[in-house]
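Contributing new records

If you add data, match the layout below exactly. Sequence lines come first and carry their own label; structure lines follow with theirs. Keep one chain per record. Anything else will be rejected by the validation script.
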Amino acid sequence: MTGTPRWVATARRPSRVLVVGGASLDVLHVRGVPTPSAGGAGLYAALAAARCGADVTMLAPVPSPMPDPLAPALERIRWIGPTVPPEGLPRFEIAYDEHGDVTLFREHLGAEPDMRPDLLALADSLPGGIPAVAYCVPFLDATLQRAFVRALRARECLVAANTYLHGVRQQPAVVRATFAEADVFFCNEAEAEVLFGRDAPRHTAAGRLLFVTRGARGALAVQGDLATEVPSPPAAVLDPTGAGDTFCGTVLALLARGASPVEAAAAGCREAADEVHGVGPARLWQPPSPPEVHLPVRVDHDRLDTVARLLATTPAVRAFDFLSDDLPAPGDPGALDWFCAATLQQYGFWYGDVDGWTGPMTATLGGVRRRGSDHLWAAYLRWSRADPTVTSPARQATLTEADLAAALSSDEGVQPHPMLADTVALARAYGRTMLEMGWTPASLVAAANATERPTAALLALLDHVGGYREDPLRKKAALLAVILRQRPEAWLRAVDGDDVPPIVDYHVQRTCLRTGVVTATDTRLRALLASRRWMSPDDEAAVRRACAEAVRLLVERSGRTMGEVDWFLFQMRHRCPELTVPDCAACPADPACAHRVVLFQPVFRTTAY
């Protein structure tokens, strides 16, 4: 596997973060008043990561005796490094204008220049060695940060780095070299303009992540050549110090826990918006703030518990083995490539007009009338039998619209897919990214299986693969993982506690709404769901995220696997269908169901499901 294997480190050493760079004693001018405060880019990042539940070690000069403003850090993080007197700590004085721009910056570096890569031996000696994710703050000398990044890369952990405006102005070539070597790189818009030109870059090398913070406008999360704008919640800024470092620490903690890059960035934006309400790291000393609940959709926990008990006590609940006449036979030598290429096309099997949903996608293939995913599977199987190489990454990278139209065409020669252009784009992105990183389906599975948590490792790798990386909730990536685990070949090793995230498509959303495990509390949204009309991105996200949480809780409270719960919910499409009256008497969920059969799934075009 010639691409970066370090993404599997998050599955090898979960939820552990090393921060290289430390604390300072600062004076912050808050609304014109000089205010002493704890500070330091490393401290902000370390506290933010710990606040998100990570096991954090900070490598930095350790003052003895410990100054009172820094003492609370010892209750939250592991602090290792050379001992220095308190006066050896860096000290900064910072003032901002009404726009949050720095107007005064005085610095005393203290013992920072004494930091050197051989101090990593202290982290090497920790139980378990170097953590899964290692982050190096920007030092005044950018060459020192680059030396740390190189030393960390040699330890095969996931390596992240940040920068700051002084560094990119004084040593732009060194910072660009660090950007090229880090697995994850952070900067703000002003720094990005100096490094890359007026427009923030919307691409980075395959297998690398770039996060560009944009103040009140949130952040840009870049995965290879895919860029996603992530909004920030509104914030009443009291002190902007440390907002960017809080974003970094939060993102790294979430990546270490296995979150997708966009989900991690969204959490980073929320935590940064919360942090600026206090002075210095005051908010980071506190437990995380509970989220404000003003959502138009919520989980009904009483109903969910009823369904979970039914799931737990129904003997017939099982996981699908992904064997059928429309799928490759067990032992087919091309089956692994086939599933990796075909699963990413499992989305969008319905038609709409200017008002909303008009009907499911159906087509006749081999004399059988098939719907949606069944047609896609059968069409890909027919295609691969005619040309066994067609699902290889190399072939997928060069597919044309004519290729896909012919492959998906019905017995009558009609191409039925309503999103053919997207199908072509995803196939090509899949093939291109796999080739760029030197990956094959077999090498992905082998790299994942070499870790303690193969499923988590596979999901982390798929965050860099076209066709899978686009969905922060990872529906298709999770579907592929359960296929690889549940097929007779058992390509992906199953490990207790290493399950997939919720697999939420539109059938599962319809099931969640009709059974009542999810409730639309907003009258307007409920009317949209019942009328099958087009929905806004915000409304769709509210419904889908509530359903994802409900499915996660069904797994947790029933004791079933995600594969078992997903197949139970997905199969209800036959008993509670889109077009005809539900057959409640034949439905195993009937005793626990709220029977809200007028409700429908979100009508929203996406390649995620």
